[in-house]
Design a protein that fits this description.
This protein has 313 residues and is mainly beta. The protein has five helices and 21 strands. It has a ten-stranded mixed sheet. Strands 13-15-16-17-18-19-20-21 form an eight-stranded antiparallel barrel. Strand 13 (202-214) and strand 14 (217-218) form a beta hairpin.
Length: 313
């Protein structure tokens, strides 16, 4: 409700002010809202993606700061938009992962206020729109004191090529993130006693492997079914040696190499003298979940995998 009142007040203010180049402090005055019909808004935006050009923080007196809002900011990026029928797609960067992703949602355009609304969320208020330019006011952030920050932002229509690149650059669907890229299991405590009792003296076969996409998420697709030249590694663990078993050129003659190792209970990881390191997330009687790093045979590129091992035999 607070956000609605702020937007409504801002809309009324913009509806009556006129555009001037700048005020006494050197800040720019905001353009007045140009009312547009729902049909015209759809006609001008449908099927297009809109590229960010610039944005400026809106001040309480109805002016906007001369400097671009994003100048000097670290850890964020402006959003881009796309429209298709009654759907709006927001392309965004999430610094916490980091990740470029998108979110599609139904929207409505409110005549008389120029508000673009999705469900109960005000997406933005349109100041003006043409076939190649979209100017809006949107809530950008919330300060520590609880006050919202609004910006006046300018977008231009993308070319067909730019739209195609946009979809490639923002590949992750925020709505299906948990399904497409599940979270890693929570790290469990694995003591030296646990490792000796449950892992040592056993043979472990790789049952699943998934590429880590972010720090704590992995692809639901099986890694070794995707045409990689890497092969699964099975393990036999004794009190002082880890044996790595991989399939060679002859599937009937696996390659078996043994290395001395150390187990670090603080980091829950195993490190061998052969260079293999894996971190155990979960260890049970018949199953071991771990994260390990492998190297592509040709490029040498490091690949981090989330693997589920099951006791062989």
């Amino acid at each position: 409700m607070k956000h609605f009142r702020l937007v409504s007040a801002l809309f009324l203010f913009l509806s009556v002010i006129s555009f001037t180049s700048c005020d006494e402090d050197g800040d720019f005055a905001l353009p007045s809202v140009q009312l547009v019909s729902e049909a015209d808004f759809a006609r001008l935006t449908d099927g297009k993606a809109w590229k960010y050009v610039e944005s400026h923080e809106v001040k309480d007196n109805g002016t906007m700061r001369k400097a671009d809002y994003w100048d000097g900011l670290v850890g964020g990026a402006p959003v881009q938009y796309g429209f298709s029928g009654d759907s709006i797609t927001t392309y965004m960067y999430i610094d916490a992962y980091p990740m470029k992703c998108y979110k599609a949602a139904k929207y409505t355009f409110e005549e008389g206020t120029n508000r673009v609304v999705s469900g109960s969320t005000d997406v933005f208020t349109v100041v003006s729109v043409s076939r190649d330019r979209l100017c809006i006011i949107r809530r950008q952030a919330t300060r520590a004191d609880g006050n919202d920050v609004y910006v006046y932002a300018v977008y231009r229509a993308m070319t067909a090529y730019e739209q195609a690149v946009l979809k490639q650059d923002y590949p992750y669907n925020l709505d299906t993130m948990d399904e497409d890229y599940p979270r890693l299991p929570e790290q469990e405590a694995v003591t030296e006693a646990d490792f000796a009792a449950l892992a040592v003296g056993q043979a472990w076969q790789c049952a699943e492997a998934h590429a880590l996409v972010f720090a704590n998420r992995y692809s639901k697709d099986g890694f070794f079914t995707d045409g990689t030249r890497l092969k699964p590694v099975d393990y036999e663990i004794t009190a002082d040696t880890v044996y790595e078993i991989t399939q060679g050129e002859d599937p009937s003659a696996p390659v078996r190499e043994g290395y001395a190792y150390t187990f670090n209970a603080n980091g829950r990881y195993v490190e061998t003298q052969g260079g293999t390191t894996f971190r155990i997330l979960r260890l049970a009687d018949d199953e071991m979940h771990l994260v390990q790093e492998r190297a592509e045979p040709v490029s040498g590129k490091a690949v981090r995998l989330y693997c589920i091992y099951r006791r062989a035999g």
